[in-house]
Write a structure and sequence with these properties.
Order of helices and strands: HHHHH
CATH superfamily of the largest domain: lambda repressor-like DNA-binding domains
Mean pLDDT: 80
Radius of gyration: 15 Å
Length: 91
Amino acid sequence: MSQRALGELAELDQSAVSRIEAGLRDVGAHELYRLAQVFGTTAEALLMEEDHEPVLLRAGDAEDVEITRACEAFEAAIDDYFAAIALSEYL
């Protein structure tokens, strides 16, 4: 898929797609949601490394109770955000 085609589907201009691919531009939460829709996946899947470990949490850290609670709260907040975005599309 070309950068232009991806940009059109994700409502981004081609230069933004190019800068994202080059690591020169961050992706906002709403943009991440749209990119996930384009690729037929979830935002979480786009944020995962190839070995399927969350980028912000390594297996060794999973035993730390505070880190686990913080990650669960973060995941809940992200889920709430995307649910609100999806709901707003129907209002």
